[in-house]
Amino acid sequence: MQEHLLLLLNLCSLALAWYACPFTDNSLNKTISGNVTIQAECTFLTSPLEWKGFNPNTFDGAFYNRTRTIPVMNIHVKRLFFSKLSPQGNSSGKHFINYWLLNGGGGSQVGMESFGISMLKQISMNNYHLTYPNTYPIMYLFQYRGAGMSTPSIHCHTARTWPDCATELINTTVPSSRDESLRVINAMSNQHIAQDLQYQVQYAMNETQSTAETSTYIYGLSQGTGIIEHYLTIQSIDSNLQIIDGVILDGVMSVKESDTGSNQFKFHNERFYMYLAKCQQDSACSKTFNAVSGSDQDIIIVTLRLQMLFLTNKTNPLCTHQVGLTDWPLFILIANQGIETVSARPITAILIARIYRCSVEDQRVLSKALPIMINLVNEYGPGTLIDPPEAYPADGSVLSIVTIWSDYIGKTLTESVKDNAEFYNDLCIRIDVSYQIYIASAGLLPLCNDTQVSKYNYVLSRDFKDILYSRNPLYWGQLQVNPRIFRPRQGGALLFNGDLDYNSPLVTAEQFQEFLRMQEIPTKLVAMKGLTHVTAPQSYTKSAGFQSPSCTEQIIAQFLYRKELNVSLSNLDDRCNSEQTLIGIDWFYQDATVNKTLYDLFGGTTTNYWGVSIDNQPDKLPTPF
């Protein structure tokens, strides 16, 4: 059986050399401004299937890739760089900035390509590439083991439920052996992914640091922040071999304080109230909402009344049932999707007001708009788990089932979905109860739906429990940063979090900031108002719009070039982060992208999305689309 596993894990003989490779649109180079172009290179690096007994700083991947004496993972690595500042060639006298980009749920490398391109664009806009021609910024796109082009990878091609996906993984990863399948699947752990990162960071350093100054920064979003936290705890990292200048965590998932399961059914509801409060606190939004709803009550009271009308089946059916909006939970799905999407963020308040009023004009507009929105939430809601390797948007989705349910549900070692059936049953019951009593429940978890035996009785299948791995008791809840990583330099941790983030609430980032400070690690937290989970792809400014790098990227660019700019972490210019500067919630769709998004959502029926006369509009009116 061991021979079968070795054969599966080592299908390809891979040379550890960089080669020119295309971007995801198949182009070999991109022009990002004027005559500034960027290119991409790829390689495969070999990691052991299980890191136990190996040190990532000294592991000889080329040897084991050649000899095949242990089961290995061949992990795809991609890097982006300015065409005129290539990492190839003589490195003497250069300063290399190695910037590692880690995605969230599932670790898609493809999803991070746009982040790397945008950061190079920001560096170009700042003219750093011209001002500091001996500084070479390299964007490394990290891919989780098990995802994308890495081998072996785990995917479900036919399953429609999570338990069925678990069974499919076991039957297809190593078809000849259940035990060998589980050995591969269980090796797809956050801890192993962090050690893969350690190995790859060291590999990149070894290419340059003997002849050139090398600075290393690691950016992680969502689950990627948890991978960074694992990385920071690795005690085998020797400051003489590997040291980093800084980490950037965006949408902080603290494995010390947070619990994804609790967050998603508790803070989801609180986030909805916070969103409504933001409209109430904005005098123009509050005034317009009252004009549309015809009520002098605040938006929260009107929303509660609308919920009651749904629950008692007393809404005007011309604005609800007859256009497909059958109940309050369906409305909340639409509302939450609107809040999550920066270009559609005002839609939730608008819908509450117009459904509550339900005028003849509202009936006309909503008859077109609501079916579009219902189709969108059905399309992007929980459904098929088909995750073929060639489907870039889904790259890594199945992998996240293993890592999230193993490591991020429950705050303690005893609160384990894998090992504690009572905890799992209680979790589903709590979610079910919250679904019934919260104004804005996150909804029932698909896994709970799929495993419900009877009322208040949820039982996981053997296959699903088996694909999960047990938490490492030396790490979980014992987060202890290796002090040798930061101390010799003036680096630190730069944290970003939106105040409307329910996956990783702002309080989690604040707790993690305090934890790092207690360990004497320089830390800066940038809290962004009106933003949800992961700020980089949504912290656009009113002056630059959606086509330019975000405020988050503007701040990070300074952090990467802090040596050249002679700035400290605490002195980074973050003035782009203010309610006056950020688009955040564009209540009156003054940004062209927001305007266009609402126009599409309303089916082209109107450009007056609030549905009030000009006299009732705020002083600054949007330009009609």
Automatic annotation (TrEMBL):
The organism's place on the tree of life at top rank: Eukaryota
Signal peptide (residue range): 1-17
Stated name of the protein: Peptidase S33 tripeptidyl aminopeptidase-like C-terminal domain-containing protein
Keyword Signal listed: yes
InterPro entries: AB_hydrolase_fold
Alphabetized UniProt keyword annotations: Signal
